[in-house]
Write a structure and sequence with these properties.
homodimer, 103 residues, mainly alpha, 434 Repressor (Amino-terminal Domain), 7 helices, 0% strand, DNA-binding
Chain lengths: 103, 103
Amino acid sequence: MRNNLRDRNRKPTHPGTILREDVLPALNMTQVEFAERLGVSRLTVSELLHEKRALSPEMAVRLGRLLSTTPDSWLAMQSTLNLWQALHELPELAEIVPLRASA
Amino acid sequence: MRNNLRDRNRKPTHPGTILREDVLPALNMTQVEFAERLGVSRLTVSELLHEKRALSPEMAVRLGRLLSTTPDSWLAMQSTLNLWQALHELPELAEIVPLRASA
DNA sequence: TATCATGTAACCTACTGGATTACAGTATAC
DNA sequence: GTATACTGTAATCCAGTAGGTTACATGATA
């Protein structure tokens, strides 16, 4: 419970962080080779690693195939981040009145 | 297991289906009022109900607030569908060679 | 020194969520 | 039967973004 509260205030980890800090080092592979194997440009990989762009469903499938993981695990990280951003960066959403409160 | 295999071949349900078939009828509410309470235009609701567009993270938060549900449950439906579409509608992704197969 | 890997910027394309406006059809109310 | 409301749909605009290409500067390394 306290963890949930804390987690909700903490910005979720961008999937690029995992790729940059864990996956690529463990593979001992350059970004260039990683991009080639994924079938995308070097820039797409670089910008993803540096959290300049979101991890798309298409990229989740690419990673899943290359790394033999479930695409879901990658996309779920991004979705969690997207939700957090919507909650925190769109203050107008707070004006929506729950139906239970107006019934 | 058999269910998983079967589920992977079946196109996941669009979140708009649930809104159209279950949520709105249960609320006994017009699309116009639903849209007003969500703070979006009538068209945004109509097109979502008819699966003409995806359910965005922003909309997931709106629905979560209005309906007192978790935004995650809505966004997860869309993510599952997005993944299924990437897997089935982008045949070039099948050309990615898993690292475990080339080691 | 020459090569490779990387970060970054500029620019382009295609797609998409959302808003607005408009029109046609179907109800329902009077 | 007429008016009002709800709905589906189309056209148009805008902003954001994933991905590509090209180019340049830098750092590391052979």
